[in-house]
Amino acid sequence: MPALYVVATPIGNLEDITLRAIRTLKEVQLIAAEDTRKTRRLLAACNIKTPTTSYYEHNKLTKLDFILERLQTQDVALVSDAGMPGISDPGFELISAAIQHHIPLVPIPGPSVLITALVLSGLPTHSFLYLGFLPRKEGERRRLLQSRSEESATLVLFESPHRILHSLRDILEILGDREIAVGRELTKIYEEIFRGTVDEALRHFSAPKGEFTLVIAGKPKGTPADLDSETEKRLKKMHRSGITAKQAIARLAGDTGLPRKKLYQAWLKNK
């Protein structure tokens, strides 16, 4: 019986494709690709001549029936722009439809930017939460971050160069100045992995370019709910030193895990 092969492709460096992926893409009768232009470059590099058809966010509903019909008589491979299909891309709908129609699924595992960034981050990997792409709208983005502010697991998310600074500012304000690792253009020529605090990342990526994966430390366990005497002393000392409220609150939020709103209220009392 024909099957849908879910094939992982390189996230940047074409040499990361697996031997099994190459063989599969050569043997199937059709390749459903998120971006046929990008996929054709990969196919050309591997001397693969299998026909392709586009399957992306804006045609996924109209193309779904066409691909399901082909799957009645032919093997089809599903590929995304990069990495494993079905993770924050339209491949999810096709995979779900194949399951509903009792079409066999065959996974061809390989590169994943999520796992690559996580293991490079140096942050805990035993428990993590994937948030996908943060919402474009500021209000929705801030509400999502707020809903995960108590999460102790490491957080992993994707972001574009156009919104990375907005997202980092929201992360700093809502989650505090936590430890963060930012992967940029992973496995590509200009690969970069930044490790530091959220505030430091904001200053480092002043003119961001490329695709970003953010790995953020979870909320420290045993975080106090209220200011203790030591935190109040530090706050007063910072106030007397002339440091700005934003700098003081970001630093203390990262160190203590206390909500920025609570720290700001304490700052105003000192003022």
Write the layout of secondary structure elements.
Layout (H helix, E strand, L loop, with lengths): L3 E4 L11 H9 L2 E4 L2 H10 L6 E3 L5 H11 L5 E4 L11 H10 L4 E4 L4 H9 L6 E6 L4 H10 L6 E6 L4 H12 L3 E6 L7 E6 H7 L7 E5 L12 H13 L3 H12 L3 H11 L1
Parallel strand pairs: 1-4, 1-5, 2-3, 2-4, 6-7
Antiparallel strand pairs: 7-10, 8-9, 8-10
What does it look like?
- This protein folds into three domains: 4-111, 3-Layer(aba) Sandwich (Cobalt-precorrin-4 Transmethylase, domain 1); 114-216, Tetrapyrrole methylase, C-terminal domain (Methyltransferase, Cobalt-precorrin-4 Transmethylase, Domain 2), CATH 3.30.950; 229-270.
- The protein contains eleven helices and ten strands.
- The protein has helices at 19-27, 36-45, 60-70, 91-100, 113-121, 138-147, 164-175, 198-204, 229-241, 245-256, 260-270; strands at residues 4-7, 30-33, 52-54, 76-79, 105-108, 128-133, 154-159, 179-184, 192-197, 212-216.
- The mean pLDDT is 91.
